[in-house]
Write a structure and sequence with these properties.
alpha/beta, three-stranded mixed β-sheet, globular
Length: about 160
């Protein structure tokens, strides 16, 4: 289905999942993960340490650390996995099991699985390469988008750093 033709399904569920800054999907087959993923997630290099991961989690909006070698995803680390990591290589922490999804996966089915399993983030992987991140909002009713993340970053940046000459 073309990206511009997401419409209500005849098998409409009570509520839809919001993505892409206002679009809705109500049932399987109406959108893919690629339609909803954040295309520029924060990535850590293969040389990152546990300390680097801990620093990344200093942002309360970050719920998964993606460690890559170039664009190849090595691991996905969740906050509870860095307790005593110190200078240990980040690539040795976390896992890919249950933390990745393909860009062509069905958005409704993926969202349903995420909400049922309490999963807030899934790395979007194609041929081993990290191409995005699917981010469930705190409300679980929608997914974060690039524009929303940029807007939040502008709001939380100290004003003296945002003015233009």
């Amino acid at each position: 289905m073309p990206l511009s033709r997401i419409e209500e399904s005849t098998t409409r569920h009570e509520d839809g999942v919001e993505f892409g800054g206002g679009r809705l999907a109500y049932a399987p087959g109406e959108a893919t993960v690629a339609d909803a993923m954040v295309r520029r997630p924060k990535l850590l290099p293969a040389t990152a340490t546990g300390r680097d991961v801990r620093d990344l989690f200093g942002d309360d909006h970050v719920h998964a650390a993606l460690v890559v070698d170039e664009r190849t995803l090595l691991t996905v680390i969740e906050p509870h996995e860095i307790a005593a990591s110190g200078d240990a290589p980040a690539r040795t922490m976390g896992t890919l099991a249950g933390r990745t999804v393909a860009p062509d996966a069905d958005l409704w089915e993926t969202w349903t699985w995420m909400t049922a399993n309490g999963c807030r983030r899934l790395a979007v992987v194609e041929n081993g390469r990290c191409v995005g991140l699917l981010c469930l909002k705190r409300s679980s009713r929608g997914l974060c988008c690039d524009a929303g993340i940029r807007a939040r970053a502008r709001q939380t940046t100290p004003q003296e750093l945002t003015w233009e000459e």
